[in-house]
Amino acid sequence: MTPTVSASGIGLRYGGTRALDDVSLRLTGGVTGLLGPNGAGKTTLLRVLATALPADQGAFTVLGHDPSTARGRQEVRRRLGYLPQTPGFHPDFTAFEFVDYVAILKEMTDRGVRHREVRRVLDEVGLADVRGKRMRKLSGGMRQRVALAAALVGDPGFLVLDEPTVGLDPEQRMRFRELIAGAGEGRTVLLSTHQTEDVAMLCHRVLVMAGGRIRFDGTPAELTARAAGRVWSSTERDPGARAGWRTGTGSFRNVGDPPDGADLLEPTLEDGYLLTLDGAGAEVAA
Amino acid sequence: MNRQLLVPVHRTLPWGAVGAAGGAGLLLAALTRTGETGERLSLPLLRAAVLAFALGLVFLLDDPARHTTATVPTPRPVRVALRTALVVPAAAAWWTVALLLVPPDVRPPVGDLTLEAGAAFVLAVTAAAAVVRFTEVTRPGLPVAGGLLTTAVLALLLWPERWALFVAVEDKRWAAAHDRWAVLLAAAALAGMLCTREPLRRGAWRPAR
Question: Is the confidence metric ipTM above 0.90 for this complex?
């Protein structure tokens, strides 16, 4: 299968900080999750792949085109949807007008076809009823859905979503998960998030970034399996644990290297993620 | 370029800021009609009017949807050019009215002063384009307005005499000063064009994260 994204040795520096360090990856269809702590380089990687920011080093193709050339970047942008971390809007535009404006910027010239497409994506994100409402009157969750509609307009082959569920309440997050799962059918979606539950529920593949590098690349099950035999329960916080916290039942859940005879628990994806970061931290420190 | 962009882009322009700055500028120009002192100060008053309008133009590139539309195929230079083109007729009309407000017998040389105004307007938009180019801000207008005002005051006070720009009409350096204004206009226009480019590779010019 031809990959949607094929990247080799991408590097990018901000002053003395190496934001991306020799990042190589291949993305194919479906939803891929990108996990990592703040400052890991997730947003920078997404912006580079979305052609919003040029890299210092390395080479990559998106949808078969090389974004380091003007023509290649143009071709990528014609088939790309991008939802930035902090999407902004023109407050006096209605939801329909804003998505229509983005559709015009995406070179959709036929007004009839474009308006049908705008109605389709607004319907897809569940905003058909409020499409005539001005942006400044919409709730935060609704605005986020308008931004997703703007990313989806034109049926892009590659969708880049930067923390789309931040600031949403649980119901809105659930609604967004449905939307992202739908968006991942028949196209490639790269989803940056801090929410391990989002990755567990949505993604067929997960990347973990730390210190500008990819520390893990595999399935959510493989990430979870990293914590197999390394999560245990105790009545007191185990001083040998890498992380430990009191649960609602009063017992402690510990992650790390368990003592002999420990009461082992079923690991979660978050446990695997924590242990991967812990290993990455040790590697960085070394 | 898609002609259907005209209406939405027109709606995104900061007409409120431009209108307020234009109004303030016209008030300053109208002060030249308030008697002998006003007439005597016609040149500095017109220059102050130009500065006022330029302070409105620095809001031209304010775009709250900047990041949401960062990766659309319509290139950024095209969008900046469209915004600028839409405001040019308003700027031309404003400048005509400002000049007409000055009594003809005390009106400074129109061509030379138009050159000064053009340079100031292009500098203002270029400053905003530079902030957009090198930072992630979506509304560069306010900080650029502060910077432009400070720069104008400092230029008036500290600009070297040998490269004088703000000279009186009867000053023998008037012609040489306007050669410098022409160079300033050309340099600002060139810098503005460079600032609106989208880099393919990162080099010495690096936008902040």
Answer: no
Do A56 and A81 touch, CB atoms closer than 8 A? Answer: no
Of B65, B71, B207, the CB nearest to A50: B71
Contact A109 B68 (CB under 8 A): no
Burial A243-272 (b: 16+ CB within 10 A, else e): bbeeeeeeebbbbbebeeebeebebbbbbb
- The answer to whether position B204 is within a domain reads no
Number of domains within chain B = 1
Beta-carbon pairs below 8 A across chains A and B: 95
Give CA–CA dist B116/B128, Å, rounded: 19
B88 to chain A, minimum CA–CA distance in Å? Answer: 22
Q: Which domain holds residue B41?
A: 2-195
Sheet holding A30-35, edge to edge: A80-83, A158-162, A188-192, A30-35, A205-210, A213-218
Residues A130, A133, A137, A141, Cα dihedral to 10°: 30
Does the residue B19 lie in any domain?
A: yes
The C-alpha atoms of residue A225 and residue A231 are separated, in whole angstroms, by 11
Q: Give residue-wise pLDDT tens across range A190-236.
A: 999 988 999 999 999 999 999 999 999 999 999 999 999 999 999 98
B26 falls within a domain? yes
Query: Can you give the length of chain A in residues?
Result: 286
Q: Is residue B200 part of a domain?
A: no
Residue indicated by tokens 């053009």: B118
